[in-house]
Design goal:
The chain is an alpha/beta fold and about 220 residues long. It contains eight helices and twelve strands. The strands form three sheets. It has a five-stranded parallel β-sheet with strand order 2-1-3-4-5, with helices on both faces. A four-stranded antiparallel β-sheet has the order 6-7-8-9, with no helix packed on it.
């Protein structure tokens, strides 16, 4: 997974972002002002920066100017079009306005890491190997036939591991916003994945909600 620098002066938000990113396997470094961010990036390389704009010491725009070349997502309470255009014009990879859902942040982080080739192309656990690039799945080195939708669902579960996802959210992420089918479709596909991959103890049912891929 990736090394991510979180630059956010509101400590509860900083900690919440850190916990969620760590829960899906990322390594996180947290700072609360612009100068500390620049100092941290002078000491180490990271794969992605989550950068607030309104920061003590040095604002986010100036921090970004000094760290050009590192993939960056602006996180800000500034929702105006001019602010968004400025951030993207400077070269930021994405721009997310507070308040935001943590699921949306995780999805955008994943998208940026994929574009910058900093995300893992494979995942292995309990004899299961998933090759995301070729969309192939193996159990104890033997190929497992998965339908396209089964693979999409498995990819969503793995990318959001240790996070409880509702059936509605799984439909949205794996089937798409325009899917109008029954949420029982998710249950059927989950049962097939559990059986095919011997993951009854990994794909947990979350009572009255949905499922969680537990690592």
């Amino acid at each position: 997974m990736a090394a991510i620098l979180i630059v956010e002066d509101e400590i509860p938000i900083n900690e919440l972002i850190k916990r969620n990113l760590q829960s899906v396997g990322h390594t996180c470094i947290s700072v609360t002002d612009g100068k500390a961010a620049i100092d941290e990036l002078a000491r180490r390389e990271v794969d992605l920066v989550l950068l607030d704009i309104m920061l003590p010491e040095i604002d986010g725009y100036e921090v970004f100017r000094q760290i050009r070349g590192t993939p960056t997502i602006f996180l800000t309470a500034r929702s105006g079009l001019a602010d968004k255009v400025k951030g993207l014009t400077l070269g930021a990879d994405d721009y997310l306005v507070k308040p935001f859902e943590m699921m949306e942040l995780l999805a955008r982080v994943d998208a940026v890491l994929r574009r910058t080739k900093k995300t893992s192309k494979t995942f292995e656990l309990d004899g299961v190997k998933i090759d995301f690039a070729s969309r192939q799945v193996f159990l104890h080195e033997k190929p497992v036939e998965c339908t396209p939708k089964e693979f999409d669902l498995l990819e969503v579960l793995v990318n959001n591991r240790n996070i409880a996802l509702s059936r509605e959210k799984l439909l949205e992420l794996a089937w798409g916003y325009d899917y109008v089918g029954d949420t029982r479709t998710v249950d059927v596909h989950i049962q097939k994945l559990r059986k095919k991959l011997d993951m009854e103890t990994r794909i947990k049912t979350v009572y009255k909600l949905g499922y969680r891929f537990e690592v």
